[in-house]
């Protein structure tokens, strides 16, 4: 069962809009983010914007909103779902999406990563049927990300060199 009792009241996810691009890019270019990423070089907006605008991908902003669903109080991170080419081998040997999460520096260490990922996967599932496979590739030296994905229902299925591969197993619905 996937659940997280530490989810803050008012946690919500929504699609990224052009108004978010600068903030998402700043988070992506943060030194800690780059140190944990497979792509460690800083990117310019011209380089990153096409990824955020890819109609096949989904970027979701996580926010903490005022009670009652009011206006956002704080943007706390982004979760991206990138389609894997059908020719690229995956942990399930079927096409799917690679999932990545990046918390804002101010949101790190507050127990928000797993609740954000759970909310994003739920939002992704609500608009994608049949359910595509969800995969994550996580560096072995990133235990915080490993714990986040495991708490969100992903399980490790393979290890290669410095990377661990995770897959989301959809809960059975009865």
Describe the protein's topology.
Elements: E1 11-15, H1 21-28, H2 31-36, H3 45-53, E2 58-65, E3 72-83, E4 96-103, H4 113-127, E5 133-139, H5 143-151, E6 154-160, E7 163-168
Helix pairs in contact: 4-5
Description:
The protein is an alpha+beta fold. The chain has a single domain, classed as Aminopeptidase (3-Layer(aba) Sandwich). Helix content is 27%, strand content 30%. Strands 1-2-3-4-5-7-6 form a 7-stranded mixed sheet, sandwiched between helices. Helix 4 crosses helix 5. The longest helix is centred in the C-terminal third of the chain and has 15 residues. The N terminus is likely disordered.
Could you list some keywords that capture this structure?
174 residues; alpha+beta; Aminopeptidase; 30% strand
């Amino acid at each position: 069962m996937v659940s997280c009792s530490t989810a803050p009241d008012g946690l919500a996810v929504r699609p990224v809009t052009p108004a978010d691009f600068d903030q998402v890019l700043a988070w992506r270019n943060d030194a800690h983010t780059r140190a944990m990423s497979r792509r460690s070089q800083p990117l310019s907006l011209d380089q990153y914007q096409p990824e955020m605008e890819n109609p096949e991908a989904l970027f979701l902003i996580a926010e903490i909103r005022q009670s009652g669903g009011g206006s956002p109080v704080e943007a706390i991170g982004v979760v991206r779902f990138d389609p894997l080419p059908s020719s690229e081998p995956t942990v399930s040997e079927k096409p799917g999406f690679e999932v990545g999460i990046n918390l804002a520096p101010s949101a790190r260490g507050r127990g928000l990563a797993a609740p954000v990922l759970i909310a994003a996967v739920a939002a992704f599932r609500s608009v994608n049927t049949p359910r595509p496979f969800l995969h994550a590739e996580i560096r072995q030296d990133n235990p915080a990300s490993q714990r986040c994905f495991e708490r969100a229902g992903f399980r490790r299925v393979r290890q290669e060199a410095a990377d661990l591969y995770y897959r989301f197993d959809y809960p059975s619905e009865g």
